[in-house]
Specification:
The structure is a homodimer.
Chain A: H1 7-10, E1 14-15, H2 16-23, H3 27-35, E2 42-43, E3 49-51, H4 53-67, H5 72-103
Antiparallel strand pairs in A: 1-3, 2-3
The structure holds a DNA duplex.
DNA sequence: CGTGTAAGGAATTCTGACACG
DNA sequence: CGTGTAAGGAATTCTGACACG
């Protein structure tokens, strides 16, 4: 039954009404955060938004930050930073691997 | 982002239309398999069926077995068996732990 | 800026039934 | 037995707008 991977975390299958129930946010709020580029639901064939569990987690995070008085523009920057950090981390890993390969005179 | 657990596997959040897309089954078929006690969706407040990713996996399994000419009654028995095996497995584990505890004169 | 609401249309879901076999 | 379909109603979702601030 269990998969071990978190493929289900990113699969966009949840409709907006269910996301409301899970997050406590209104449809209006959820659509607005999309407009402000904080979440990126997919669309079903005829145009209904579909969210992943990961999106739900992000939204709950957003809800907390908004309660603390943060603005969507700040949240946008913050998420940008997280993206960059992830990217930096991957880059660093690649560079270190490169150095190791050089040291051992290997090729990838 | 990743959780490590598969809590999302069992959370019932997917509506029947999306399940159709994921499984290739018709609404009629999915509702019928429910009637035959092969799947157990939850209901939202006003009565709409909600499925988990686990349910989707089960349905894909059912779809295969049905193609092979198996009947819902047989599938029902098979799933019953799997339940029993899981139960047996848990029981055996408990018994072994009991024997170990007895051997070492411990208490849980 | 962030969110509520009324508006109207289009698509979704539900149940019980008729049908074929 | 397993599944398709037409039927009618109720709830969902969508967009663009008015509103307050």
């Amino acid at each position: 039954m269990a998969t071990g991977s978190d493929a289900y975390l990113y699969k966009k299958v949840i409709s907006i009404g269910t996301v409301c129930e899970l997050t406590g946010l209104s449809e209006r709020q959820i659509r607005y955060y999309e407009k402000r580029k904080l979440i990126f639901p997919e669309r079903s064939e005829r145009g209904n938004r579909k969210y992943s569990f990961s999106d739900v987690e992000t939204l709950m995070d957003i809800a907390n930050k908004m309660e603390d008085g943060m603005q969507t523009s700040e949240l946008r920057k913050e998420m940008q930073n997280k993206q960059n950090k992830r990217y930096d981390s991957k880059l660093k890993e690649t560079m270190i691997r490169g150095q190791l390969n050089a040291y051992f005179n290997k090729r990838e």
